[in-house]
Specification:
This protein is mainly β. It is built from 3 helices and 16 strands. A hairpin with a 2-residue loop joins strand 14 (290-304) and strand 15. The longest helix is centred in the N-terminal third of the chain and has 17 residues, at 2-18.
Length: 341
Amino acid sequence: MAGVRLVGLWLALGTVGLAQGEGEASPRVSGVLFGDLYGVLGHHDRSVEGKSGTWIRRINLTFDAGLGEGLSTRFRLEAKDPGDFRTESELKPYAKDLWIRWERAGHAVLFGLVPTPTAEAAETELAYRPIEKHTLDLFRMGWTRDKGLGFQGPLDRTGRWVYQVVLGDASGTESSSGDTRAAYGRLGWKPAPGLLLDLYADWWDRKHGEEWTTWKLEAVRVGASGKLGLVAAAQRRSQPGQASRTLEVGSLYAEWNASVALKPFLWVHASQDPIPGAEDIDYFRMSPDGKPTVWLLGARWRIAEAVELVPVLVRVEYREADDRPKPDPDTFLRLTFSAKF
Protein backbone atom coordinates (compact mmCIF):
# COMPACT_ATOMS: atom_id res chain seq x y z
CA MET A 1 0.00 0.00 0.00
CA ALA A 2 2.87 2.38 0.80
CA GLY A 3 4.40 1.71 -2.60
CA VAL A 4 1.12 2.46 -4.39
CA ARG A 5 0.73 5.73 -2.47
CA LEU A 6 4.31 6.69 -3.32
CA VAL A 7 3.74 6.09 -7.02
CA GLY A 8 0.51 8.10 -6.91
CA LEU A 9 2.23 11.00 -5.19
CA TRP A 10 5.13 10.99 -7.63
CA LEU A 11 2.85 10.87 -10.65
CA ALA A 12 0.69 13.66 -9.26
CA LEU A 13 3.70 15.87 -8.65
CA GLY A 14 5.03 15.14 -12.12
CA THR A 15 1.73 15.85 -13.83
CA VAL A 16 1.23 19.10 -11.98
CA GLY A 17 4.71 20.53 -11.89
CA LEU A 18 7.28 18.85 -14.08
CA ALA A 19 5.91 19.32 -17.56
CA GLN A 20 4.90 22.95 -17.40
CA GLY A 21 7.91 24.37 -19.22
CA GLU A 22 7.55 25.05 -22.92
CA GLY A 23 9.13 22.42 -25.13
CA GLU A 24 9.42 19.87 -22.31
CA ALA A 25 8.10 16.38 -22.98
CA SER A 26 5.22 15.15 -20.85
CA PRO A 27 6.04 12.70 -18.07
CA ARG A 28 6.13 9.13 -19.34
CA VAL A 29 5.09 5.96 -17.53
CA SER A 30 6.31 2.52 -18.64
CA GLY A 31 6.53 -0.95 -17.19
CA VAL A 32 8.08 -4.40 -17.51
CA LEU A 33 6.76 -7.78 -16.41
CA PHE A 34 8.36 -11.21 -16.66
CA GLY A 35 8.10 -14.47 -14.79
CA ASP A 36 7.88 -18.22 -15.24
CA LEU A 37 5.74 -21.28 -15.07
CA TYR A 38 8.38 -23.67 -13.73
CA GLY A 39 9.01 -27.25 -12.76
CA VAL A 40 12.02 -28.69 -10.94
CA LEU A 41 12.86 -31.99 -12.65
CA GLY A 42 15.91 -32.70 -10.51
CA HIS A 43 17.89 -30.94 -7.79
CA HIS A 44 20.83 -31.59 -5.47
CA ASP A 45 18.56 -30.47 -2.61
CA ARG A 46 15.88 -33.15 -2.36
CA SER A 47 13.52 -30.72 -0.61
CA VAL A 48 13.41 -28.66 -3.84
CA GLU A 49 13.16 -31.51 -6.34
CA GLY A 50 9.68 -32.01 -7.78
CA LYS A 51 8.41 -28.53 -6.95
CA SER A 52 6.47 -26.52 -9.53
CA GLY A 53 4.54 -23.29 -9.73
CA THR A 54 4.55 -19.74 -10.99
CA TRP A 55 6.76 -16.87 -9.93
CA ILE A 56 7.20 -13.25 -10.93
CA ARG A 57 10.88 -12.50 -11.42
CA ARG A 58 10.30 -8.82 -12.15
CA ILE A 59 7.47 -6.35 -12.35
CA ASN A 60 8.24 -2.65 -12.36
CA LEU A 61 6.67 0.71 -13.00
CA THR A 62 8.92 3.51 -14.25
CA PHE A 63 8.21 7.23 -14.26
CA ASP A 64 10.46 9.51 -16.39
CA ALA A 65 10.13 13.29 -16.59
CA GLY A 66 12.07 16.25 -17.89
CA LEU A 67 12.73 19.12 -15.50
CA GLY A 68 14.14 21.63 -17.98
CA GLU A 69 17.65 23.07 -18.36
CA GLY A 70 19.12 19.64 -19.15
CA LEU A 71 17.65 18.09 -16.01
CA SER A 72 15.54 14.92 -15.86
CA THR A 73 14.42 12.42 -13.25
CA ARG A 74 13.46 8.76 -12.98
CA PHE A 75 11.56 6.87 -10.31
CA ARG A 76 11.13 3.10 -10.63
CA LEU A 77 9.27 0.79 -8.28
CA GLU A 78 9.97 -2.93 -8.60
CA ALA A 79 8.70 -6.14 -7.01
CA LYS A 80 9.45 -9.85 -7.36
CA ASP A 81 8.85 -13.22 -5.73
CA PRO A 82 11.63 -14.40 -3.39
CA GLY A 83 12.36 -17.49 -5.49
CA ASP A 84 13.93 -19.41 -2.59
CA PHE A 85 11.46 -22.34 -2.67
CA ARG A 86 10.54 -21.65 0.96
CA THR A 87 9.08 -18.18 1.49
CA GLU A 88 5.36 -17.53 1.03
CA SER A 89 4.76 -13.77 0.93
CA GLU A 90 3.11 -10.95 -0.98
CA LEU A 91 4.98 -8.98 -3.62
CA LYS A 92 6.60 -6.06 -1.80
CA PRO A 93 7.63 -3.06 -3.94
CA TYR A 94 10.95 -1.32 -3.43
CA ALA A 95 12.73 1.56 -5.17
CA LYS A 96 14.97 0.31 -7.99
CA ASP A 97 15.83 3.69 -9.54
CA LEU A 98 15.48 7.11 -7.94
CA TRP A 99 17.75 9.73 -9.47
CA ILE A 100 18.11 13.20 -10.91
CA ARG A 101 20.21 13.61 -14.05
CA TRP A 102 21.89 16.68 -15.50
CA GLU A 103 23.19 16.46 -19.07
CA ARG A 104 25.24 18.82 -21.17
CA ALA A 105 27.14 18.25 -24.45
CA GLY A 106 26.48 14.51 -24.21
CA HIS A 107 27.98 14.17 -20.72
CA ALA A 108 25.71 13.39 -17.77
CA VAL A 109 25.86 13.48 -13.98
CA LEU A 110 23.39 11.41 -11.95
CA PHE A 111 22.64 11.62 -8.24
CA GLY A 112 20.61 9.19 -6.13
CA LEU A 113 19.92 5.48 -6.56
CA VAL A 114 21.61 5.01 -9.94
CA PRO A 115 22.51 2.18 -12.35
CA THR A 116 26.07 0.85 -12.08
CA PRO A 117 28.02 -0.23 -15.19
CA THR A 118 28.16 -3.85 -13.95
CA ALA A 119 25.68 -5.21 -16.50
CA GLU A 120 23.81 -2.28 -18.05
CA ALA A 121 25.57 -2.13 -21.44
CA ALA A 122 25.25 -5.84 -22.23
CA GLU A 123 21.66 -6.06 -20.97
CA THR A 124 20.72 -3.09 -23.17
CA GLU A 125 22.40 -4.43 -26.32
CA LEU A 126 21.40 -8.10 -25.98
CA ALA A 127 18.02 -7.59 -24.24
CA TYR A 128 18.31 -10.97 -22.50
CA ARG A 129 17.22 -9.93 -19.00
CA PRO A 130 13.80 -11.71 -19.13
CA ILE A 131 15.69 -14.98 -19.69
CA GLU A 132 18.21 -14.58 -16.87
CA LYS A 133 20.63 -12.19 -15.14
CA HIS A 134 24.07 -11.12 -16.31
CA THR A 135 26.84 -13.48 -15.11
CA LEU A 136 28.15 -11.16 -12.36
CA ASP A 137 24.62 -10.53 -11.13
CA LEU A 138 23.63 -14.20 -11.28
CA PHE A 139 26.66 -15.33 -9.25
CA ARG A 140 26.16 -12.52 -6.69
CA MET A 141 29.43 -10.79 -7.58
CA GLY A 142 28.13 -7.26 -8.10
CA TRP A 143 25.31 -4.72 -7.76
CA THR A 144 23.39 -3.36 -10.74
CA ARG A 145 22.29 -0.38 -8.60
CA ASP A 146 23.95 1.73 -5.91
CA LYS A 147 23.38 5.05 -4.18
CA GLY A 148 25.77 7.86 -4.96
CA LEU A 149 27.05 9.83 -7.96
CA GLY A 150 27.27 8.65 -11.55
CA PHE A 151 29.16 10.16 -14.49
CA GLN A 152 28.95 9.08 -18.13
CA GLY A 153 29.48 10.32 -21.65
CA PRO A 154 31.57 10.09 -24.83
CA LEU A 155 35.36 10.33 -24.95
CA ASP A 156 35.59 11.39 -28.60
CA ARG A 157 33.51 13.31 -31.13
CA THR A 158 32.25 10.18 -32.88
CA GLY A 159 30.93 8.61 -29.66
CA ARG A 160 32.76 5.35 -30.33
CA TRP A 161 34.56 5.61 -26.99
CA VAL A 162 32.37 6.04 -23.90
CA TYR A 163 32.94 6.05 -20.16
CA GLN A 164 30.80 5.45 -17.09
CA VAL A 165 31.86 5.94 -13.46
CA VAL A 166 29.79 5.48 -10.29
CA LEU A 167 30.90 6.37 -6.77
CA GLY A 168 28.55 4.68 -4.33
CA ASP A 169 28.07 3.45 -0.78
CA ALA A 170 27.99 -0.29 -1.64
CA SER A 171 24.46 -0.67 -0.27
CA GLY A 172 22.66 -1.46 -3.53
CA THR A 173 18.93 -0.83 -3.13
CA GLU A 174 19.09 -1.26 0.64
CA SER A 175 19.84 1.34 3.30
CA SER A 176 23.47 2.11 4.11
CA SER A 177 25.17 1.64 7.46
CA GLY A 178 27.69 4.37 6.55
CA ASP A 179 30.78 2.18 6.78
CA THR A 180 30.90 0.74 3.25
CA ARG A 181 31.78 2.28 -0.11
CA ALA A 182 32.33 1.29 -3.73
CA ALA A 183 33.66 2.60 -7.04
CA TYR A 184 32.66 1.28 -10.47
CA GLY A 185 34.17 2.12 -13.84
CA ARG A 186 33.55 1.16 -17.45
CA LEU A 187 35.32 1.96 -20.73
CA GLY A 188 33.39 1.04 -23.86
CA TRP A 189 34.48 1.01 -27.50
CA LYS A 190 32.28 0.61 -30.59
CA PRO A 191 34.74 0.04 -33.46
CA ALA A 192 31.92 -0.80 -35.89
CA PRO A 193 28.11 -0.73 -35.97
CA GLY A 194 26.71 -3.56 -33.86
CA LEU A 195 30.01 -4.31 -32.12
CA LEU A 196 30.81 -3.34 -28.51
CA LEU A 197 33.98 -4.08 -26.53
CA ASP A 198 33.88 -3.33 -22.82
CA LEU A 199 36.41 -3.10 -20.01
CA TYR A 200 34.94 -2.92 -16.50
CA ALA A 201 36.38 -2.75 -12.97
CA ASP A 202 35.01 -2.17 -9.50
CA TRP A 203 36.26 -1.93 -5.91
CA TRP A 204 34.17 -2.56 -2.81
CA ASP A 205 35.12 -1.68 0.74
CA ARG A 206 32.75 -3.91 2.66
CA LYS A 207 32.08 -4.51 6.35
CA HIS A 208 34.71 -5.94 8.72
CA GLY A 209 37.59 -4.83 6.48
CA GLU A 210 36.61 -7.10 3.58
CA GLU A 211 37.50 -5.85 0.08
CA TRP A 212 36.31 -7.06 -3.31
CA THR A 213 38.03 -6.07 -6.59
CA THR A 214 36.54 -7.10 -9.93
CA TRP A 215 37.80 -7.00 -13.52
CA LYS A 216 35.64 -7.86 -16.51
CA LEU A 217 36.14 -8.03 -20.27
CA GLU A 218 33.03 -8.21 -22.41
CA ALA A 219 32.27 -8.35 -26.12
CA VAL A 220 28.86 -7.93 -27.76
CA ARG A 221 27.94 -8.43 -31.41
CA VAL A 222 24.48 -7.61 -32.77
CA GLY A 223 23.80 -8.30 -36.44
CA ALA A 224 21.10 -9.26 -38.91
CA SER A 225 21.53 -12.98 -38.22
CA GLY A 226 21.52 -12.75 -34.43
CA LYS A 227 23.38 -11.75 -31.28
CA LEU A 228 26.54 -12.90 -29.51
CA GLY A 229 27.86 -11.99 -26.06
CA LEU A 230 31.08 -13.06 -24.34
CA VAL A 231 32.12 -12.38 -20.72
CA ALA A 232 35.35 -13.12 -18.83
CA ALA A 233 35.65 -11.84 -15.26
CA ALA A 234 37.66 -12.31 -12.08
CA GLN A 235 36.99 -11.08 -8.57
CA ARG A 236 39.51 -11.03 -5.72
CA ARG A 237 38.11 -11.12 -2.18
CA SER A 238 40.31 -10.34 0.81
CA GLN A 239 39.64 -9.99 4.53
CA PRO A 240 42.01 -9.34 7.47
CA GLY A 241 43.24 -12.55 9.06
CA GLN A 242 42.04 -14.76 6.21
CA ALA A 243 43.58 -15.98 2.97
CA SER A 244 42.37 -14.06 -0.08
CA ARG A 245 40.49 -15.90 -2.80
CA THR A 246 39.74 -15.24 -6.46
CA LEU A 247 36.55 -16.17 -8.32
CA GLU A 248 36.88 -16.63 -12.09
CA VAL A 249 33.70 -16.72 -14.19
CA GLY A 250 32.70 -16.47 -17.82
CA SER A 251 29.72 -16.77 -20.12
CA LEU A 252 28.63 -17.21 -23.72
CA TYR A 253 25.29 -15.99 -25.10
CA ALA A 254 24.28 -16.84 -28.67
CA GLU A 255 20.93 -15.98 -30.27
CA TRP A 256 19.86 -16.79 -33.84
CA ASN A 257 17.22 -14.82 -35.74
CA ALA A 258 15.43 -17.83 -37.24
CA SER A 259 12.55 -15.54 -38.22
CA VAL A 260 11.04 -12.23 -37.21
CA ALA A 261 9.13 -13.91 -34.39
CA LEU A 262 11.36 -16.88 -33.42
CA LYS A 263 14.87 -16.61 -31.92
CA PRO A 264 16.50 -19.77 -30.51
CA PHE A 265 19.33 -19.19 -28.02
CA LEU A 266 21.99 -20.88 -25.93
CA TRP A 267 23.41 -19.27 -22.80
CA VAL A 268 26.19 -20.77 -20.70
CA HIS A 269 27.53 -19.36 -17.41
CA ALA A 270 30.56 -21.07 -15.87
CA SER A 271 32.62 -20.60 -12.73
CA GLN A 272 36.07 -22.01 -12.05
CA ASP A 273 35.34 -21.85 -8.33
CA PRO A 274 32.47 -22.67 -5.95
CA ILE A 275 30.22 -19.64 -5.44
CA PRO A 276 30.00 -18.47 -1.80
CA GLY A 277 26.37 -18.14 -0.79
CA ALA A 278 25.19 -20.03 -3.87
CA GLU A 279 22.30 -21.48 -1.86
CA ASP A 280 20.81 -17.96 -1.76
CA ILE A 281 20.77 -17.43 -5.54
CA ASP A 282 17.15 -16.66 -6.42
CA TYR A 283 15.20 -19.19 -8.51
CA PHE A 284 18.09 -21.68 -8.48
CA ARG A 285 19.20 -22.48 -4.93
CA MET A 286 22.58 -23.66 -6.24
CA SER A 287 25.07 -25.69 -4.23
CA PRO A 288 28.10 -23.88 -2.71
CA ASP A 289 30.06 -27.15 -2.75
CA GLY A 290 30.73 -27.48 -6.49
CA LYS A 291 31.95 -25.42 -9.44
CA PRO A 292 28.74 -24.58 -11.34
CA THR A 293 28.08 -24.44 -15.07
CA VAL A 294 24.62 -23.10 -15.91
CA TRP A 295 23.10 -24.08 -19.26
CA LEU A 296 20.02 -22.31 -20.66
CA LEU A 297 18.63 -23.59 -23.95
CA GLY A 298 15.45 -22.17 -25.39
CA ALA A 299 13.73 -19.93 -27.91
CA ARG A 300 12.19 -16.48 -27.78
CA TRP A 301 8.80 -16.43 -29.47
CA ARG A 302 7.34 -12.97 -30.04
CA ILE A 303 3.56 -13.25 -30.04
CA ALA A 304 2.94 -9.48 -30.12
CA GLU A 305 4.96 -6.29 -30.50
CA ALA A 306 5.99 -6.19 -26.83
CA VAL A 307 5.09 -9.70 -25.62
CA GLU A 308 7.24 -12.85 -25.66
CA LEU A 309 6.88 -16.47 -24.61
CA VAL A 310 10.20 -18.18 -23.90
CA PRO A 311 10.38 -21.95 -23.25
CA VAL A 312 13.70 -22.71 -21.54
CA LEU A 313 15.48 -25.83 -20.36
CA VAL A 314 17.82 -24.89 -17.49
CA ARG A 315 20.48 -27.24 -16.14
CA VAL A 316 23.15 -26.58 -13.53
CA GLU A 317 26.03 -29.03 -13.56
CA TYR A 318 28.76 -29.07 -10.93
CA ARG A 319 32.43 -29.99 -11.08
CA GLU A 320 34.24 -31.26 -8.04
CA ALA A 321 35.80 -28.64 -5.75
CA ASP A 322 38.61 -29.52 -3.33
CA ASP A 323 37.74 -32.74 -1.50
CA ARG A 324 34.02 -32.09 -1.34
CA PRO A 325 31.61 -34.54 -3.02
CA LYS A 326 30.31 -33.35 -6.38
CA PRO A 327 26.67 -32.19 -6.03
CA ASP A 328 23.98 -33.73 -8.22
CA PRO A 329 22.85 -31.52 -11.13
CA ASP A 330 19.81 -29.23 -11.02
CA THR A 331 17.29 -29.31 -13.88
CA PHE A 332 14.40 -26.88 -14.43
CA LEU A 333 11.78 -26.41 -17.12
CA ARG A 334 10.54 -22.85 -17.53
CA LEU A 335 7.94 -21.17 -19.68
CA THR A 336 8.84 -17.52 -19.37
CA PHE A 337 6.33 -14.78 -20.15
CA SER A 338 7.60 -11.26 -20.81
CA ALA A 339 5.78 -8.02 -21.57
CA LYS A 340 6.57 -4.32 -21.84
CA PHE A 341 4.09 -1.45 -21.73
